[in-house]
Design a protein that fits this description.
Layout: H1 50-53, E1 65-70, E2 76-81, E3 85-87, E4 98-102, E5 114-121, H2 126-140, E6 148-151, E7 155-162, E8 165-174, E9 177-189, H3 193-203
Antiparallel strand pairs: 1-2, 3-4, 4-5, 5-9, 6-7, 7-8, 8-9
Length: 213
Protein backbone atom coordinates (compact mmCIF):
# COMPACT_ATOMS: atom_id res chain seq x y z
CA UNK A 1 0.00 0.00 0.00
CA UNK A 2 1.47 3.40 -0.96
CA UNK A 3 2.24 5.77 1.86
CA UNK A 4 -0.17 8.64 2.17
CA UNK A 5 0.35 11.66 4.37
CA UNK A 6 -2.87 13.13 5.67
CA UNK A 7 -3.23 16.90 6.22
CA UNK A 8 -2.84 18.59 9.58
CA UNK A 9 -5.38 18.29 12.31
CA UNK A 10 -8.20 20.53 13.33
CA UNK A 11 -10.40 18.41 15.57
CA UNK A 12 -13.75 18.83 13.82
CA UNK A 13 -16.75 16.55 14.09
CA UNK A 14 -15.74 14.60 11.00
CA UNK A 15 -12.17 14.11 12.32
CA UNK A 16 -10.06 12.30 9.73
CA UNK A 17 -12.95 11.93 7.30
CA UNK A 18 -12.68 15.70 6.64
CA UNK A 19 -9.02 16.07 7.55
CA UNK A 20 -6.78 14.42 10.07
CA UNK A 21 -7.67 16.15 13.33
CA UNK A 22 -5.64 17.70 16.07
CA UNK A 23 -2.92 16.00 18.05
CA UNK A 24 -3.01 16.77 21.74
CA UNK A 25 -1.60 15.44 25.07
CA UNK A 26 1.79 15.13 26.69
CA UNK A 27 5.05 13.34 26.09
CA UNK A 28 4.96 9.83 27.54
CA UNK A 29 6.79 10.49 30.78
CA UNK A 30 4.61 13.49 31.67
CA UNK A 31 1.38 13.18 33.60
CA UNK A 32 -1.57 14.65 31.72
CA UNK A 33 -2.58 17.94 33.39
CA UNK A 34 -6.23 18.99 33.77
CA UNK A 35 -7.45 20.95 30.73
CA UNK A 36 -8.34 24.62 31.35
CA UNK A 37 -11.74 25.99 32.24
CA UNK A 38 -13.43 28.47 29.91
CA UNK A 39 -11.92 31.31 31.96
CA UNK A 40 -8.42 29.91 31.48
CA UNK A 41 -8.10 28.58 35.02
CA UNK A 42 -7.63 24.88 35.69
CA UNK A 43 -11.07 23.43 36.36
CA UNK A 44 -11.87 21.13 39.26
CA UNK A 45 -12.35 17.55 38.09
CA UNK A 46 -15.99 16.55 38.43
CA UNK A 47 -17.14 13.09 39.61
CA UNK A 48 -17.00 10.30 37.04
CA UNK A 49 -19.95 10.10 34.63
CA UNK A 50 -22.65 8.02 36.43
CA UNK A 51 -24.43 6.96 33.22
CA UNK A 52 -21.20 5.70 31.66
CA UNK A 53 -20.23 3.85 34.82
CA UNK A 54 -23.62 2.12 34.84
CA UNK A 55 -22.46 0.09 31.82
CA UNK A 56 -19.56 -1.41 33.79
CA UNK A 57 -20.05 -4.81 35.42
CA UNK A 58 -20.25 -4.77 39.21
CA UNK A 59 -16.81 -5.08 40.77
CA UNK A 60 -14.99 -4.42 37.48
CA UNK A 61 -12.33 -1.74 37.11
CA UNK A 62 -13.88 0.91 34.81
CA UNK A 63 -10.41 1.88 33.64
CA UNK A 64 -9.15 -1.64 32.94
CA UNK A 65 -7.27 -1.38 29.65
CA UNK A 66 -7.29 -3.69 26.63
CA UNK A 67 -4.67 -3.39 23.89
CA UNK A 68 -5.87 -2.79 20.35
CA UNK A 69 -3.30 -3.92 17.75
CA UNK A 70 -3.35 -2.33 14.31
CA UNK A 71 -1.46 -3.66 11.29
CA UNK A 72 -2.86 -1.31 8.62
CA UNK A 73 -0.58 1.34 7.10
CA UNK A 74 1.36 1.98 10.32
CA UNK A 75 1.56 -0.84 12.89
CA UNK A 76 0.74 0.32 16.42
CA UNK A 77 -0.56 -1.00 19.73
CA UNK A 78 -2.66 1.31 21.92
CA UNK A 79 -4.80 0.54 24.94
CA UNK A 80 -8.38 1.62 25.57
CA UNK A 81 -10.77 1.19 28.54
CA UNK A 82 -12.78 -1.74 27.19
CA UNK A 83 -15.31 -1.72 30.06
CA UNK A 84 -16.30 1.86 29.21
CA UNK A 85 -15.70 2.27 25.49
CA UNK A 86 -16.45 0.42 22.27
CA UNK A 87 -15.28 0.82 18.70
CA UNK A 88 -17.56 2.98 16.56
CA UNK A 89 -17.93 0.94 13.36
CA UNK A 90 -19.65 3.87 11.63
CA UNK A 91 -16.54 6.02 12.03
CA UNK A 92 -13.80 3.88 10.54
CA UNK A 93 -11.31 5.02 7.94
CA UNK A 94 -8.18 4.08 6.07
CA UNK A 95 -4.66 4.21 7.51
CA UNK A 96 -5.59 2.24 10.63
CA UNK A 97 -8.06 4.86 11.86
CA UNK A 98 -10.23 3.50 14.67
CA UNK A 99 -12.72 5.55 16.71
CA UNK A 100 -14.03 4.68 20.18
CA UNK A 101 -17.11 6.03 21.98
CA UNK A 102 -18.73 5.39 25.36
CA UNK A 103 -20.81 2.22 25.47
CA UNK A 104 -23.56 4.15 27.24
CA UNK A 105 -23.27 7.28 25.11
CA UNK A 106 -26.57 8.56 23.77
CA UNK A 107 -25.35 11.74 22.13
CA UNK A 108 -24.28 11.67 18.49
CA UNK A 109 -22.53 14.01 16.10
CA UNK A 110 -20.47 16.93 17.44
CA UNK A 111 -21.55 16.39 21.05
CA UNK A 112 -20.38 12.80 21.31
CA UNK A 113 -17.22 12.23 23.32
CA UNK A 114 -14.73 10.16 21.39
CA UNK A 115 -11.19 8.86 21.16
CA UNK A 116 -9.55 8.17 17.79
CA UNK A 117 -6.39 6.22 16.91
CA UNK A 118 -4.75 6.58 13.49
CA UNK A 119 -1.47 6.32 11.61
CA UNK A 120 0.02 8.33 8.75
CA UNK A 121 3.21 8.46 6.70
CA UNK A 122 4.79 11.26 4.72
CA UNK A 123 7.81 13.47 4.11
CA UNK A 124 7.05 16.11 6.76
CA UNK A 125 9.31 16.17 9.83
CA UNK A 126 7.93 15.99 13.36
CA UNK A 127 8.77 19.60 14.24
CA UNK A 128 7.20 20.84 11.00
CA UNK A 129 4.01 18.92 11.78
CA UNK A 130 4.00 20.44 15.25
CA UNK A 131 4.09 23.98 13.84
CA UNK A 132 1.62 23.28 11.05
CA UNK A 133 -0.96 21.76 13.36
CA UNK A 134 -0.88 24.82 15.63
CA UNK A 135 -1.63 27.00 12.61
CA UNK A 136 -4.47 24.71 11.51
CA UNK A 137 -6.00 24.82 14.99
CA UNK A 138 -5.69 28.62 15.13
CA UNK A 139 -7.51 28.93 11.80
CA UNK A 140 -10.36 26.82 13.18
CA UNK A 141 -10.39 28.61 16.55
CA UNK A 142 -8.86 32.11 16.11
CA UNK A 143 -8.91 32.90 19.85
CA UNK A 144 -7.36 29.58 20.85
CA UNK A 145 -5.13 29.36 23.92
CA UNK A 146 -3.12 26.16 24.22
CA UNK A 147 -3.10 24.59 27.68
CA UNK A 148 -0.51 22.02 26.56
CA UNK A 149 2.14 22.59 23.88
CA UNK A 150 5.07 20.20 24.17
CA UNK A 151 7.55 18.97 21.55
CA UNK A 152 9.98 16.13 22.26
CA UNK A 153 12.38 14.12 20.11
CA UNK A 154 9.82 11.39 19.35
CA UNK A 155 6.43 12.98 20.09
CA UNK A 156 4.46 16.15 20.54
CA UNK A 157 1.34 17.26 22.37
CA UNK A 158 -1.28 19.95 21.93
CA UNK A 159 -4.38 20.65 23.97
CA UNK A 160 -6.91 23.46 23.72
CA UNK A 161 -10.53 24.37 24.25
CA UNK A 162 -13.14 25.35 21.68
CA UNK A 163 -16.36 26.47 23.31
CA UNK A 164 -17.19 23.95 26.01
CA UNK A 165 -15.29 21.13 24.25
CA UNK A 166 -11.86 19.95 25.40
CA UNK A 167 -9.45 18.76 22.70
CA UNK A 168 -6.56 16.65 23.87
CA UNK A 169 -4.17 14.16 22.25
CA UNK A 170 -0.72 13.12 21.19
CA UNK A 171 1.40 12.18 18.16
CA UNK A 172 4.44 9.86 18.18
CA UNK A 173 6.95 8.81 15.55
CA UNK A 174 6.30 5.20 14.59
CA UNK A 175 8.61 2.50 15.89
CA UNK A 176 11.48 1.87 13.48
CA UNK A 177 10.17 4.33 10.88
CA UNK A 178 10.64 8.08 11.56
CA UNK A 179 8.69 8.89 8.38
CA UNK A 180 5.49 7.50 9.87
CA UNK A 181 3.42 8.66 12.84
CA UNK A 182 0.80 7.36 15.26
CA UNK A 183 -1.71 9.64 16.90
CA UNK A 184 -4.48 9.52 19.43
CA UNK A 185 -7.00 12.33 19.72
CA UNK A 186 -9.75 13.05 22.25
CA UNK A 187 -12.75 15.35 22.34
CA UNK A 188 -15.08 15.63 25.31
CA UNK A 189 -17.11 18.14 27.31
CA UNK A 190 -16.65 19.60 30.77
CA UNK A 191 -19.33 17.28 32.19
CA UNK A 192 -17.22 14.28 31.10
CA UNK A 193 -13.90 15.43 32.56
CA UNK A 194 -14.14 13.24 35.65
CA UNK A 195 -14.35 10.25 33.35
CA UNK A 196 -12.06 11.25 30.49
CA UNK A 197 -9.16 12.93 32.28
CA UNK A 198 -8.03 9.57 33.78
CA UNK A 199 -8.56 7.87 30.40
CA UNK A 200 -6.35 10.45 28.68
CA UNK A 201 -3.64 9.93 31.29
CA UNK A 202 -3.65 6.15 30.90
CA UNK A 203 -3.86 6.01 27.11
CA UNK A 204 -1.05 8.53 26.57
CA UNK A 205 1.23 7.20 29.32
CA UNK A 206 3.43 5.12 27.01
CA UNK A 207 4.49 4.84 23.40
CA UNK A 208 2.21 2.95 20.97
CA UNK A 209 4.90 0.39 20.07
CA UNK A 210 3.88 -3.22 19.54
CA UNK A 211 6.11 -5.85 21.17
CA UNK A 212 8.56 -7.60 18.88
CA UNK A 213 7.23 -10.96 17.63
Amino acid sequence: MPRVFLPGFVFATCLVACRESAPLALASRDAAPPPPSASGAVATVVPAHPVALASVDAGADPLAMRTMRNIEMVPYCLSYPSALMKEDDSDRGEHGRKAFVLKSGKEVGPNRARMVFSGTCGPTALNELFERDQKDIARDAPDVKFSVKALRADSYALSWRKGDRIHYGKLWTAKGDPGCFVRVVFEYGDAERGLFDPIVSRVTASRPDCPDP
